[in-house]
Design a protein that fits this description.
single chain, 235 residues, alpha+beta, Structural Genomics Hypothetical 15.5 Kd Protein In mrcA-pckA Intergenic Region, Chain A, Alpha-Beta Plaits, 3 domains, nine-stranded mixed sheet, four-stranded antiparallel sheet, binds uracil
């Protein structure tokens, strides 16, 4: 079966279709030894496609994983400092990519896939899917401080949009909260609490939209169900 070169690259997990078009236009992709810059080119499994000189295999099997990430793992495919990555927890040969990131010290729900289009969609800033976190912070912030975060706060680098925050437990100089945000800016939850003078002691993502981490032990993963995949694609 023939498909457009950009779709071939997206299905192989190299990039979203849109980003793959740019890689092609930038002359980074070759077909049977020849750099191809036009976007109409169709390819099949008989062709040898290379991206930056490396063969891109596309077995067309799309894989979707939900991982309960422990702390102490970085959520990239490789790390120049030699730290453990989430790929060390996954026993699947295909090239998978984390959809967005969780910090080294954050645990919980991380989706990994080789579906470049879905990754693009879910990580695009215009996507307002709710992400729920359980957060333990130092101190006992009052409702007035939490309201600043609920409304949206100017953190310097960016202003957050509104969030939902519920106090679950207070006491012994610590507070446990449930925080729901729509964005996924770099270290957003940590920076939000720094803004009101609290350090994040523990941070765990428990859901993305209707997808929940419940039932998966730390460090373990499972394939997403057909319904979960359908749901994510429709978001
Ligand atoms: N917010 C953070 O600060 N860190 C994460 O890992 C996720 C959300």
């Amino acid at each position: 079966m023939e498909v457009r070169l950009q779709k071939y690259l997206a299905d192989a997990g190299i990039a979203s279709r849109r980003k793959a078009e740019k890689l092609i236009a930038d002359g980074k992709v070759s077909v049977n030894g020849k750099i191809i810059k036009e976007l109409g080119r169709k390819v099949s499994s008989q062709d040898i496609i290379k991206y930056e000189g490396k063969v891109v295999k596309n077995n067309n099997k799309l894989i979707y994983i939900i991982l309960n990430k422990p702390t102490g793992y970085i959520s990239t495919v490789s790390d120049e400092k030699g730290r453990k990555t989430v790929m060390d927890l996954i026993d699947i040969k295909s090239r998978l990519y984390p959809v967005g990131r969780l910090d080294y010290n954050t645990s919980g729900l991380l989706i990994l896939t080789n579906d470049g289009d879905l990754t693009y969609k879910l990580t695009h800033p215009k996507h307002e899917v709710e992400k729920k976190y359980l957060v333990t912070v130092s101190g006992e912030p009052d409702e007035e401080s939490l309201d600043k975060l609920r409304i949206g706060a100017n953190l310097g680098e960016y202003t957050t949009s509104s969030s939902r925050i519920k106090v679950l437990e207070r006491g012994n100089g610590k507070t446990k909260l449930e925080v729901i945000i729509h964005e996924g800016k770099n270290r957003q939850v940590r920076k939000m609490f720094e803004y009101i003078g609290c350090d994040v002691i523990k941070l765990k993502r428990v859901s993305i939209g209707k997808i929940k981490i419940k039932g998966i032990s730390q460090g373990k993963y499972r394939q997403l169900t057909k319904e979960e995949i359908r749901y994510l694609k429709k978001l």
